[in-house]
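Tip: read the tokens left to right.
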């Protein structure tokens, strides 16, 4: 539902889905005046008993499990005061508020309603709550909102940079699709007939008006929001984030785990994904220029690190012991013995002409993506997110350790090409650092 009167419908929508349950509005100091007050008024008008949890806006809210548990406790208290009736949290905000509320509702054993205030990320429709747990970013499977009330006037009125972040998150579906094509071609993870077209068939259209997104043009913002929402649904349909997330997200997750900050503020998810996407498209541009048909599947595996060398590399990459332990668990899921690696490389060599063609027609060049992101107001250099070239290159080398999902980074590592590719794509004078 969209339009001027959308938020006034909040009371009727709430009653239809949750009856007379009490509501706990979860907002922050920015989103409460923008939409929370209107939602509260509409709920009160409909006879709903409403309380509000208004979180501080500064410093930018962190998706922390402890905060989510505190909100869950408040939901529990409301339930006890209501003779055990199930209160319904109403998330009024963007990514972090929705993630906190999703987890709080789930752990309090209730459902929730979402009122998005910005097209800033793809998680509104998803069941997973990406939260930080003792420093490691994990996605906890909860439940999606029972109802989403998206007022496009509110969303289009969000700060332009938040729409830029959402555009960055949506742009990430281009390299993420490439990674799924790679995994499919190597027999690691097949494309899905439902989830793949849901995200990929309309993606170019959703991304087609970056200037409009930046200006807050209603139609462009609607396309962006729909693209993000559909991507979230595709992840639910498929049962994992594969349809919408590849190595560009693994790169982003590293920076999120490291609490990457710039100018005193935590760098947003979409900004990290924008830089991750440009990084991955640079690597794809490089790969498509290589003669992969000439690789020697029998020669490469004996030089590949054994598992203990992988563990040592992970320990070196992640000084935080908790992160290193989780990374080893993830990496173990996709690491293969040398004989299996040889078979995979033979498949890569033999299938390369077909894979190259399908990647060429699916992907964008890095320069094309750079123009789109810049027009949408998303970052296009590492400087804009406070990242040095050295730290950027280290992330590219380490990103694949933290998730079991097979991506281009794994293909390059398997083929013994990762280091060569990093050096070729990210010299100090690379556009990403200019
Ligand atoms: Zn994302």
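Filled-in amino acids:
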């Amino acid at each position: 539902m969209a339009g001027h009167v959308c938020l006034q419908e909040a009371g009727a929508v709430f009653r239809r889905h949750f009856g007379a349950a009490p509501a706990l509005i979860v907002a922050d100091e920015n989103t409460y005046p923008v939409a929370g007050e209107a939602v509260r008024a509409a709920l009160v008008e409909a006879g709903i008993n409403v309380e509000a949890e208004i979180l501080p806006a500064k410093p930018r809210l962190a998706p922390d499990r402890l905060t989510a548990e505190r909100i869950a406790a408040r939901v529990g208290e409301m339930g006890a005061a209501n003779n055990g009736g199930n209160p319904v949290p109403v998330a009024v905000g963007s990514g972090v508020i929705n993630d906190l509320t999703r987890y709080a509702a789930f752990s309090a054993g209730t459902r929730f309603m979402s009122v998005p205030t910005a097209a800033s990320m793809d998680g509104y429709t998803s069941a997973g709550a990406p939260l930080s747990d003792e420093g490691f970013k994990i996605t906890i499977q909860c439940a999606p909102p029972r109802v989403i009330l998206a007022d496009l006037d509110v969303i289009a009125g969000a700060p332009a940079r938040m729409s830029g972040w959402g555009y960055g998150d949506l742009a990430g579906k281009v390299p993420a699709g490439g990674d799924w094509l790679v995994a499919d071609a190597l027999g690691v993870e097949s494309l899905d007939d439902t989830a793949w077209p849901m995200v990929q068939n309309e993606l170019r259209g959703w991304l087609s008006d970056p200037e409009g997104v930046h200006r807050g043009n209603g139609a462009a913002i609607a396309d962006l929001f729909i693209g993000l929402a559909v991507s979230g649904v595709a992840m639910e349909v498929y049962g994992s984030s594969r349809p919408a997330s590849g190595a560009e997200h693994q790169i982003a997750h590293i920076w999120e785990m490291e609490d990457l900050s710039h100018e005193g503020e935590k760098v947003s998810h979409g900004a990290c994904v924008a830089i991750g996407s440009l990084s991955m498209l640079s690597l794809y541009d490089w790969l498509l220029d290589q003669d992969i048909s000439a690789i020697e599947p029998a020669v490469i595996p004996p030089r590949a690190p054994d598992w203990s060398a992988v563990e040592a590399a992970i320990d070196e990459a992640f000084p935080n012991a908790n992160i290193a332990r989780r990374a080893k668990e993830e990496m173990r899921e996709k690491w293969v013995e040398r004989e299996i690696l040889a078979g995979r490389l033979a498949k890569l060599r033999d299938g390369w002409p077909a894979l190259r063609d399908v990647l060429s027609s699916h992907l964008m060049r890095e320069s094309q993506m750079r123009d789109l992101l810049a027009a949408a107001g998303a970052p296009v250099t590492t400087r804009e997110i406070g990242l040095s070239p050295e730290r950027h290159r280290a992330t590219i080398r380490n990103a694949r350790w933290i998730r079991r999902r097979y991506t281009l980074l794994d293909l390059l590592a398997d083929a013994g090409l990762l280091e060569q590719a990093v050096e070729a794509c990210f010299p100090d004078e690379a556009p990403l650092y200019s």
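The beta strands are 23-28, 50-55, 88-93, 113-116, 128-133, 136-141, 147-148, 261-262, 265-266. The chain has two domains: 6-156, 160-433.
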